[in-house]
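The following record pairs a protein chain with its ligand, uridine-diphosphate-N-acetylglucosamine.
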Amino acid sequence: MKVLVIGGAGYIGSHVVKNLLACGHEVAVFDDLSSGHEINLFSQAEFVRGDITDSEALAKVMQKGFDAVVHLAAKKAVGESMENPQKYAINNLCGTINILNAMADNGVKYMVFSSSAAVYGIPQYLPIDEKHPTLPINFYGFTKLEIEKLMTWYDQLKGIKFVALRYFNAAGYDEDGDIRGLDSAPQNLLPIIMEAATGKRECLKIFGQDYDTPDGTCIRDYIHVNDLAGAHTAALDYLQRTNESAVFNLGTEAGTSVLQMLEACEKVIGRKIPHLFAERRPGDPARLTASAQAAKAKLGWEPKHSSIENIIASTWRVYQ
Ligand code: UD1
């Protein structure tokens, strides 16, 4: 297929581009490089620099004629989304409307969208499956859910079929070392542990040690970015095969606590990592784990790279 990857220079997007190219797709990347990196680009994929809030730039690129769009362009800092919802409304919501309109105008049939576990809010049961109520507790999660609803309407009214992939905690780096762009101001646990290990930051602050979990720290479902990438390619195959829209969780079904992650990092790196315990971070559920049965059954997808050791080792290689 001829695929436009919007946000293809970003952390997850660049891994998706690599996987699509390896599976024989023709790929172009549209990215504003606001958080993506030029070093994440692949020479085999045409690159167009542009912003999704610029409807004219999108209309122009979409005229090149694509079978599918993979849309990963978004602002993703949960805390910032609560302080500056305007930025998230314009980038995530208006930007996606521009993408869908350009797709409708140019007859692009399929969309694979990077959604998030943040659409669920506080878990009512675990593991979370796709039938779990969607009650986001932050504005970032709200934008992801609203985009899923927009895609449902554009499916009904314009025939654009979509797969929304609800990622749990994306982590790890390409095991071949082909993708090396680092987040300049990381907010997520593993990059922060890496910065504490290299001395770039003083220490890791563990947010809360009194949660109702075995060691008192929060549990998350970490999924290797190469596994996530493979799911996007599988989602395109699914759309072509079935011509049906769908929503899938992507996770491992296993949980790792913050302390377990820290200890596993110390083991892989071979030294102690400075850390301290801090207050709970508002809006953090104690546990989040995915049921990925639907992705297994319908996409034939299964995580293969997501052992905690592999996630850490592939990340450490890049941070070193
Ligand atoms: C959140 C979103 C997720 C989104 C991701 C993108 C929710 C429920 N989840 O994941 O959908 O894709 O952000 O950024 O909104 N931690 C520390 N110290 C730190 C950083 C993190 O202890 O310095 C802890 C957190 O409290 C949490 C765990 O590490 O328990 C993982 O945090 P993080 O990497 O920020 O991801 P989530 O908040 O789980």
